[in-house]
Design brief:
By secondary structure, the chain is mainly beta. The strands form 15 sheets. Strands 5, 17, 18, 21, 24 and 27 form a six-stranded antiparallel beta sheet that branches. A six-stranded antiparallel beta sheet has the order 39-38-42-36-44-45, with no helix packed on it. Strand 30 and strand 31 form a beta hairpin. The longest helix has 8 residues. The protein is globular.
């Protein structure tokens, strides 16, 4: 028998029961159920609704327990992706399904829930039957929903060992009958689970992903980013598609376990900002936002407060003292959940700036923080994103808008800067260094409660005059991206550095996009007619596909059909139409010409049956419907392109009378396939980094396409302790001669990929 002890007990051979009965209590997993989160077997199954801890999954992620203070203003990504390609290598763990104590002499074991006896005949004449009570066993059942390594129940059972003998008074002889067991236990009672340990670079604060973290749903939020709860799941699909009258709990937003083992005298307060509706749909009066606290000992969620729905209002801050001893323990958690309509992108609640800490009081409402409030999304004048084949210098905007707020009650001195770089991390342009004046440009920002957002012109509308043409970038030969790092330098106290920086990504792929990727509301025709969005080609090109974001709102229109249309001009007759193709809104998995991106606000992409060559100049893309039904098209309320949006329900084309952008994106350029669309963006851009040999003994080697992009390498043992750190200096090897044999994680910090790359290695 082989027993190997890492962070947990891994049993590799049969006969494990003998060992396990001696090792109960030695595994940290058994005593830390609060650190577990159970995930899907396949997180890409967007069609499956899941519970907070779904049953039947063999994937477990072990969370670290957080220390105070807990602060999240959603300016940075603090959620955990449970995609298997981002979890790293799992540790295969053998957990018991059940355990027998004491061990029986042999398996299988036939058992009964009632006391049994072993019978023997000591004399035939006269007939004498002897019976001895059997030894009972503890039948310990495992498989807790949170942690498969802790027991969920213990039963007392007795073995069924012999037939039951008795004296038959009618025949005056000894007779017997079969004792039927209540069950049979074999020694096949283990199950392999995929257990994922947190890596040292994991900075997540939440255990679920139902809430939609975004930069656009809130109106004047305290800082950059909010978490939005609504009627759609983490994949942006309605919890009850088409369930117009459906009602119940929708999203959860659940914190990681937190060490709250402090006395009540430490004055612990929990606070958050909230706003109903925002730029979305208002929750009704019967809808609500709920806050709950977790009792670690009883594993019970307790109701704390309930906020009824209503129309939009400015963000309000709520403070809740935590004094009850049942919450003041290690492993405490809190969560938000929302009650509302379950049929789609409705009943919105926005949450911002969540804080939990000691030494606070009911008047602790001010935050010494200067922060961005809204991000700039593009360096382009007309579009948010555009194809690399169509990009010219004239498309560049000379300025963008910044919004900054001072959340304190005193004036702050700040400096604003940006760095413009390519996708390999090479800095191409700096503000203020490459602009006039060259010296650091500082100014006062007044409290938001008094003066609103920052008003200094060089901060809120910085110059951007980088010339792609003169620097040899144009024409762009292939898809690429650039980055703008916007950041604030604070010269006074600032408690939250994370919201002082925003990395704007400018994509040049194969599509045009006016929208920012988030549908705050939906727009529809509701009758016979057409809708079209206007675009412009700088050069002749070929239209290959059309993308629509169909927002799930009440009705389920997936069984409907539309005619995808392309026009060279919008005329009252059919003379301007250049292409038409009928398609069903629902995309089936085996459709070779269509793909729906399984993420929140994920587009439906329809590859055209025939490519459409287009000359330089204007063209229009949209659809025609020949029935009176609603097709809910995503509507971005943060950008206003109503001048490019047209609809026709009579004999004439009209423009929108309200501000916003419909979410339609044409794809032009080279031919594309569904397989190309099916690759997630994260996977497309994931660095390919080779680490070898594995297992290793004295030296580890690594290869990466852009070696100069690796700026730090660190190794961690299985407990998360850093054991090695090095800065590459033109070398591609790591000396591990001094490390003990075992399993390690090696993490590469890469300039152009902030998440870096982590590999599992074994040292002999």
């Amino acid at each position: 028998m082989i027993v190997r002890t890492w962070f947990l007990i891994i049993v590799l051979m049969q006969g494990w029961m003998n060992v396990y009965s001696q090792l109960v209590g030695t595994s940290p997993l058994e005593y830390n159920p609060e650190t577990f989160f159970k995930t899907y077997q396949s997180m890409t199954d967007e069609g499956t609704e899941k519970n907070i801890y779904p049953l039947g999954s063999f994937n477990y992620y072990i969370h670290d327990t957080l220390s105070l203070p807990f602060i999240d203003d959603f300016s940075t990504w603090t959620f955990k992706k449970y995609d298997q390609w981002s979890l790293g290598t799992p540790v295969d763990s053998v957990a018991p399904i059940y355990r027998i104590n004491p061990l029986p002499p042999a398996f299988p074991l036939n058992y009964s829930f009632e006391k049994t006896y072993s019978y023997s005949i000591t004399s035939i004449s006269p007939p004498i039957i002897d019976s001895v009570p059997n030894t009972s066993y503890q039948y310990i059942l495992y498989g807790d929903p949170l942690n498969p390594f802790i027991p969920v129940d213990t039963l007392t059972v007795w073995p069924v060992t012999t037939r039951r003998y008795f004296f038959n008074e009618i025949t005056s002889t000894i007779d017997s009958s079969i004792v039927f067991p209540d069950g049979v236990i074999t020694d096949d009672s283990t199950r392999i689970y995929q257990v994922y340990f947190p890596v040292a670079t994991d900075k997540s604060l939440w255990v679920d992903n139902y809430a939609y973290r975004n930069f656009s749903m809130g109106i004047d939020p305290p800082t950059l980013g909010v978490a939005t709860l609504d009627g759609t799941n983490e994949f942006g699909r309605a919890y009850v598609p088409g369930g117009i009258s459906s009602y119940g709990i929708n999203d959860y937003l659940t914190s990681k376990p937190i060490d709250l083992a402090y006395p009540a005298s430490d004055s612990i307060y929990f606070s958050f900002f909230y706003q109903p509706q925002g730029l979305g749909y208002a929750p009704a009066a019967k809808d609500s936002l709920v806050l709950e606290f977790y009792d670690v000992d009883t594993r019970t969620w307790h109701h704390v407060l309930n906020i009824p729905g209503g129309p939009v209002h400015p963000f309000k801050q709520v403070l809740v003292p935590i004094k009850d001893s049942k919450f003041l323990k290690k492993g405490f958690q809190f969560r938000f959940k929302n009650w509302g309509n379950r049929s789609g992108n409705l009943d919105h609640w926005n949450i911002d700036y969540v804080r939990l800490d000691r030494n606070r009081n009911h008047a602790d409402t001010l935050i010494h923080d200067v922060a961005f409030v809204y991000p700039p999304f593009s360096i382009l004048r007309r579009y948010r994103e555009m194809p690399y084949t169509q990009f010219t210098q004239s498309e560049v905007d000379a300025k963008w808008e910044n919004y900054m707020a001072n959340l304190s009650n005193v004036n702050k001195t700040i400096c604003y800067k940006f760095e413009f770089s390519d996708e390999n991390g090479n800095i191409l342009n700096r503000y203020t260094e490459d602009y006039t004046p060259v010296s650091t440009d500082t100014n006062i920002i007044f409290p938001y409660s008094i003066a609103g957002y920052a008003s200094y012109s060089r901060f809120i509308q910085p110059d951007f005059n980088y010339n792609f043409q003169s620097q040899g970038w144009l024409p762009l030969p292939d898809s690429t991206r650039f980055f703008v790092k916007n950041y604030i330098i604070n010269f006074d106290t600032d408690v939250r550095a994370e919201n002082d920086t925003f990395l704007m990504e400018q994509k040049f792929f194969s599509h045009f996009a006016y929208d920012d990727g988030t549908a705050e509301e939906a727009i529809w025709l509701g009758t016979f007619g057409s809708m079209a969005l206007k675009f412009n080609l700088n050069y002749p090109d070929t239209l290959r596909a059309v993308q629509f974001y169909f927002s799930p709102v009440r009705e389920d229109e997936s069984n409907r059909f539309i005619d995808i249309k392309v026009w060279s001009a919008l005329t009252n007759d059919a003379s301007g139409e250049v292409y038409s193709e009928k398609r069903q809104i629902r995309i089936l998995p085996d459709d070779p010409k269509a793909y729906i991106n399984p993420v929140n606000n994920g587009y439906s992409t329809y590859i055209l049956e025939e490519p459409v060559p287009l000359p330089a100049g204007e063209f229009y893309v949209g659809w025609y419907q020949n029935q009176s039904f609603k097709i809910h098209l995503g509507f971005d309320k943060n950008t206003n392109n109503k001048q490019y949006t047209f609809y026709k329900t009579t004999n004439n084309w009209d423009t929108l009378s309200f501000n916003g952008t419909v979410m339609i994106r044409p794809i032009v350029g080279p031919a594309i396939t569904k397989q190309q669309l099916n690759i997630p963006e994260d996977e497309k851009d994931m660095p390919i980094l080779l680490v070898y040999p594995n297992p290793a003994r004295d030296m580890i080697y690594y290869q990466y396409k852009y070696m100069d992009q690796i700026n730090r390498i660190a190794m961690y043992d299985i407990t998360g302790k850093q054991v090695l750190q090095t800065i590459p200096h033109g070398t591609s090897q790591i000396n591990v001669n001094g490390l003990s044999p075992g399993v390690y994680f090696i993490h590469f910090d890469i300039i152009s990929h902030p998440a870096g790359v982590t590999s599992k290695v074994i040292i002999h």
